[in-house]
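dumping this here so i dont lose it again. seq + smiles for fe (ii) ion
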Amino acid sequence: MVLVFFNILPIIVVNINTCVDIANQIRKELTLIEAVDRPERLETAPLPYEKDALEPVMSQETIEYHYDSLAKAYTKRYNAGEGDPEFNRGGSLLHNLFFTQLRPPKRNNRPTGSVLKLIHDKHGSFDEFKDKWIETAMSIQGSGWVYLSKSGDIKTIKNQAVKKDVLLPLDMWEHSFALDYRADKKKYINNFWRIVDWDTINIRLTDY
Ligand SMILES: [Fe+2]
């Protein structure tokens, strides 16, 4: 019994450290989103999964293009002082929130804990919330984001401005779905629910 405990102890320690790292990363992202002053430098958050881990909902090809090329470019341009700093800051921070809230696909992946309560209080049920979400997301003209705010509202962002109440954002720029879904935005939006890491959203909600 004692031997078994010592065998699993390293696994427990690794898991605790991973949870602490993720929570610290989330805190860092929220602090940057809430900051009034522009920070000197930004970083692109590391992916908490392998690049093919979100398939078939989000392909490795999309991750390589969207995360490796586009998301990192906003951070790079911000740090180099190139282009519009607000646009690049928004791109860097929103993509950090977006990519770190995902996990491998799960059937019947549903919100839990505090975020479930927030959705129920504001929208009645997760299904009613999803109906409003898809309607709002589909109403975006051109490039933008749809997001669940920390107060439970469904809001949109034109292009990629920083908003201080972003809890759960979905990228509605064409580059986020065109490779996997071509023009089928509804399928992209519906499939998104299969890869949301609700544990991460609950940590964000607690830290706000
Ligand atoms: Fe994007």
